[in-house]
Amino acid sequence: xxxxxxxxxxxxxxxxxxxxxxxxxxxxxxxxxxxxxxxxxxxxxxxxxxxxxxxxxxxxxxxxxxxxxxxxxxxxxxxxxxxxxxxxxxxxxxxxxxxxxxxxxxxxxxxxxxxxxxxxxxxxxxxxxxxxxxxxxxxxxxxxxxxxxxxxxxxxxxxxxxxxxxxxxxxxxxxxxxxxxxxxxxxxxxxxxxxxxxxxxxxxxxxxxxxxxxxxxxxxxxxxxxxxxxxxxxxxxxxxxxxxxxxxxxxxxxxxxxxxxxxxxxxxxxxxxxxxxxxxxxxxxxxxxxxxxxxxxxxxxxxxxxxxxxxxxxxxxxxxxxxxxxxxxxxxxxxxxxxxxxxxxxxxxxxxx
Length: 353
Fold this sequence. Notes:
Elements: H1 2-26, E1 36-38, E2 42-44, E3 54-58, H2 68-74, E4 81-86, E5 89-94, E6 97-102, H3 105-117, E7 121-126, H4 135-146, H5 149-155, E8 163-165, H6 177-193, E9 200-203, H7 211-224, E10 230-235, H8 249-261, E11 266-271, E12 274-277, E13 280-283, H9 286-296, E14 299-302, H10 330-338, H11 343-346
Parallel strand pairs: 3-4, 3-14, 4-7, 7-8, 8-9, 9-10, 10-11, 11-14
Antiparallel strand pairs: 1-2, 5-6, 12-13
Helix pairs in contact: 3-5, 4-6, 6-7, 7-8, 8-9
InterPro entries: GH, Glyco_hydro_5, Glyco_hydro_5_CS
Protein name: Mannan endo-1,4-beta-mannosidase
Domain Glycoside hydrolase family: 51-307
């Protein structure tokens, strides 16, 4: 009888182990124990703690030395994430002389290391195909860049710590939801087949602004991903009295409630104080967006920081005109420090596992 119970115990343990492993795969837990999406519902760190992105966008390819100085300043906000603007080719500023060169895996690695050292999640986004009129072709090109040998070989080393934003705003709102869905589905398959296990971020339709794409197609895309490890990003350029649209507080609230009802992991990938339309700033109720993000456990990433050695790249949406934490402007301070839902007051760092 003792032998019988031992056999039963071994079989029970084996079955439990297999079931647990299957659940881990189905729940979107990356195979290497890093960042994960739990039950297709929320982002978690390597320890399984719920993680809500709180941070900023940083224009790495527009900064001297890819913005390494700026990253050190951003860390002072307490941000747990930085969305890094990348392009396949960029202008390298050195001694005042620009040179158009290819962005390399080593370039990206240098930024990832700084982010990890400051316990900030690097959200890597490819900016080449912003506002594409042909997302089927261009998202495919974006996927091809991520799986190119030089880029992939580096990023494979950091899958526990990164999020790959396949393409920034890769649709101009002319092709329809189905076309964008098909483009993303193909890219997700390509990246997973290439060995990417990290969470993938999906920008919404129509320059990222349309929440309805996530409502209509988000769950189907999550189901399409064999790891069920997607994050959905909406760019909330929803001004109160815009040239191309007016968004009341009631409308913004309805959008955010609809996104919450999807039960999907959502981040406001670009949160700005205004929408710049034909050179005119149209004010956005960003405080409401921050409050709703906190209420719904949505991430938010402010657009955008500012530049230290290349101040010519700053614009009216820069949080700081000199790239320094001490140089935060009025809205930048609200977003980063003083508001009840500011980065500094709501960011929780990922565990170091």
